[in-house]
Amino acid sequence: MSVTRRFGGLMTYAGTPCNAGAGIRPPSTQRILLLSLLYLVGLTLVFGNAHEESQNFLAFFCLYWVSFILAPPARILSPLTFFYLYYGLWFVVAPMFAGRYQNDVMSASEYGWAFAFAYAVFGIGLISLLLGEKFAMRWLASPARQTARLPMGRLRWGMVFLYVVSTLAVVCIVLASGGFAVWINDPGDAFLNRGGSGVFVILSHFSSMALALTAGYYGYAKKKIWPILLFLGWLILTSPVHGSKFQLALLIILTILPWMRHSKLFAWDSICLGIGLVLVLGLGLYFRNHSWIDAQTFLPYTLNYFTALENLAVSIRDFAPGGMETFFLPFNKFLMPFGLSDPSFYFDMNHYLTDIYFPHAWEIRATEQWPVETDLYLNFYFFAGLPVVAAFLWCIGVLYGMALRWDTVGAWFASTVVTIFMISHLRGSLINHTDFYMYPYIFMMFFLFRRYVFRGKTIGLEVQPSLRSTGSP
Q1: What percent of the chain has pLDDT over 70?
Q2: Is position 18 within any domain?
Q3: Range of the domain at 343
Q4: What is the pLDDT of residues 26-67, one digit of tens each?
Q5: What are the residues facing 408 on neighbouring strands?
Q6: Are residues 327 and 343 in the same domain?
Q7: By 3-state DSSP, what share of the chain in percent is helix, strand and coil, each rounded to 5?
Q8: Taking the model in full, what pTM does it have?
């Protein structure tokens, strides 16, 4: 008879991890085939409407919700969740309620093409994420079988070190961009004019992300709440300097990752996380604009924040489809260490287009965001870029499948970070200049923490022992 051992709700049988109720399975082939069929039908519909210069919002709205019904995300930290969230906010909710899309604006032909392009990326993105997750959960073998736990003594001193480094990086950013008085008087303007502090910004990103991860793991392993509260308090104090709402959301998620990694989409803890992220968005918008915004203007301004659809439509109206028009702009960053860069250089598509449409904003290096569909339109004649987007999202799906299968700290860190960064790419370029240092950092963290699991050797996959040992389907 098999010997069983229980680890926090999951069991291992005769030393081999298996599921005791989590029910984690790869996406079904039938579901992927249904999505593929819907995608073909949807493409015919939306591009037919665009060609006939008919409104496409209703078609996109229906295809979005049919896709959600066919392939709902099971867990809150799934890339699928954030993928639906992005297209839901920017291409469903905003067109319905934001003032910029009222008064029959979306009847213009460029909006019909914008929705068609958006659905082309949305549909192939869903399929690619599911295929990547399925591939990892069926084919990628787990790392070494021994249980490895992070040593608590080293972790505690590591947290102290990371607090010191992270705080010093924040102080250096403040001092390099005008001093504390400037940040206290107008944090939004100070954030936009922090040029010259780039090295400290990178150091802040690296150290604060590692700090969030270790604080969360330490609190989880020791069953203590104070490491989480301490980090959140530090984050509140330093939040104006971190600035980016996505960066703040990422740090919060990394802190509670050990508890949230398997949370169902509609569980209470997931709902609380969603409310918290909405508050982060609201506070971020407030601190950026607190000098003029008030209760009456806050909601309309927040809804008008989601400009991806309008910017996509404008780029379709004003530009012809092209090849490699802006794709290599991020590589201008490599000229800076050699003194070959110039203040007029653009580092991505958004810089270039902001200077064209919003020159006053570009003077202070504020940027508008054009979606990835514009990137494909300007650099791949749109359709040639769909396989590139599919490959990018497939890799994100693979990382998530690895996190589910392995349940290691490194895999979950990598999956969570690239999932949050996915939104930056969806509302920007396929290549961002920050990728040149962020992806090596993500790989380093993945490698360093690849053998450390959250609880014993539990993975939570419904697979046979023979399959676990070989990684075969």
Answers
A1: 82
A2: no
A3: 297-383
A4: 899 999 999 999 999 999 999 999 999 899 999 999 999 999
A5: 453
A6: yes
A7: 70, 5, 30
A8: 0.86
